[in-house]
Design a protein that fits this description.
The chain is mainly α. Helices cover about 70% and strands about 0% of the residues. The longest helix has about 30 residues.
Length: about 160
């Protein structure tokens, strides 16, 4: 007889899977331009440039710091807070994945695909709604396709 895992166990396993998924996604995103160049593909360009060097997570950290604490962040703190948001967000999605997967038990590839599409959909709606990135309609199709691939990779790894 197989022992049923507790909600805490599946949440912790999911969080660990989210951490691994975020690590893989981070490496893939960092190396995507070089990989695309090796494959002879042009790297997607931003339709409307974002503020220089500001990642969406750093923009969110700055918005929270100035909006809640009425304090701007220095560049090092903004970068560190952005990384904390990036990793925390990935772990939180992993916790959700662990809890849902333990309940519905879809085949992993199917569930990972659905999960990656869900995470991508949230990223393409919520993140622009917060003013952290331009909406997908203002981005080149190639950039949207690359973002979709990134989220699918995350879903499959988790």
């Amino acid at each position: 007889m197989t022992r049923k895992e507790s909600p805490l166990e599946v949440a912790v396993k999911g969080g660990m899977a989210g951490l691994v998924g975020t690590a893989v996604l981070t490496v893939v995103m960092k190396n995507a331009p070089a990989i695309m160049q090796q494959l002879g593909m042009a790297q997607p360009q931003q339709a409307k440039p974002q503020s220089k060097g500001a990642e969406p997570t750093e923009k969110l950290a700055e918005k929270v710091a100035t909006g809640v604490f009425d304090e701007p962040l220095d560049q090092d703190t903004k970068k560190a807070a952005g990384q904390a948001i990036h990793w925390g967000y990935g772990v939180a999605w992993g916790v959700l994945y662990g809890i849902v997967q333990s309940s519905i038990r879809l085949p992993h590839l199917l569930h990972g695909t659905i999960f990656g599409l869900l995470v991508g959909r949230v990223a393409s709606t919520l993140v622009p709604a917060m003013g952290l990135t331009p909406p997908p309609t203002d981005q080149p199709a190639s950039k949207n396709a690359m973002q979709l691939v990134f989220h699918l990779i995350y879903g499959w790894v988790v």
